[in-house]
Amino acid sequence: MSDLAGIMAVTLIIWIGLFTYVYRLDRKVSRLED
Amino acid sequence: MTRIGTALKWLLLVWMAVVIWAAFMWVPSASGFKGESSRIVFFHVPTAWVATLAFLVSCVASVMYLKRRSPQDDNRAAVSAGLGLVFAVLATVTGAIFAKIMWGAYWNWDPRQTSITILLLIYAAYFALRGAVPDPEKRATLAAVYSILAFVTVPFLMFVVPRIYWSLHPDVITNPDPDNRLDSAHLRVLLASLAGFTGLYVWLYTLGSRIEAIRHRRRQEVL
Lengths: 34, 223
Known about the structure:
The structure holds two protein chains of two kinds.
Chain A: H1 3-33
Chain B: H1 3-26, H2 41-68, H3 71-103, H4 111-132, H5 136-164, H6 184-222
């Protein structure tokens, strides 16, 4: 794997991790609003 | 969450994943840059743009607070200023990485680096001010006035100062010299990234405002 592909993989992991955290928080907030 | 809202969030996940792939794998490295440093532009420019947008939204919410005196407007101003601060830090960090590759040092006290440091300090002081005033109404009024005054400095520090003084910072979008401007493939990825980051900001801002609304409602119930 080249350096560039490695950096892309790390960036993707960070993005998916951030998305998952915010999405779960969003669902929790929706439940609290109901 | 509505169906459209959920679909938009999943679209954002895919959109940004494609942007990340395109930024590293699809576009070739731009000429005139050392190594692969040009790829940082796809993350540095959108974070700087979102920071500016967030500070503008904070200013507008502050004006609305002074007009309507609604605590929700104060909460929105604080949420947006917080997001602006986070994205400004990200723009500073990505800029420093670019500086290290291009100019050999993370920090050069370039006019852009100096002006964003001043901007970070101005908005850090906004939160220091909010933390120092215990009375909610007084805090909201002072913070609203401060946020409006703070935003007056944003165009000056982001756009005017770096153009008055000689700067190492490249101008890859509005540069009159076509050799030093991004080509169409780079521009397409940059625009897609700008759209993705703006979508992420809208989501985070809406979510932050909803959390603050719940907190406010609970505080009212306790009282």
